[in-house]
């Protein structure tokens, strides 16, 4: 896969009072992720080329992918493919990268979502709605020990855009 073809269309940076190791563990562990990611569990083989899966609260495979860059506790890139029929075929692969850097007493976590083709704001609204909630939950969990329960649903404009493209959604 050629990284040069992937352009960042969504980027968030957040500062967390924690250590790079704890942020890494929270991003790569089912135990942590279920607490800040609305019950979704991140499962991954902790190695380059390993599998990356996000399971819905009921256990179904919601997102599948592969570990593309693996440099604990500094950088993780995974392919992020939502398991909806025809989605990947029509929208392409998504790359999600987490960059973790010490920033004084905090950690700077930068998350980018990159795509191999231009996508409309309506299509991107799903990630742009979900990522702030996920990252805020992660921050709260690491800083206070408790993550807010944030109900996330796909934005109507994203669902309408996907439907117009012939992509079936839940």
TrEMBL record:
InterPro entries found in the cross-reference section: ASHA1/2-like_C (IPR013538), START-like_dom_sf (IPR023393)
Pfam families: AHSA1 (PF08327)
Top-rank taxon, per record: Bacteria
Gene3D superfamilies: 3.30.530.20
Ranges where the Activator of Hsp90 ATPase homologue 1/2-like C-terminal domain occurs: 19-143
Family: Belongs to the AHA1 family.
Protein name: SRPBCC family protein
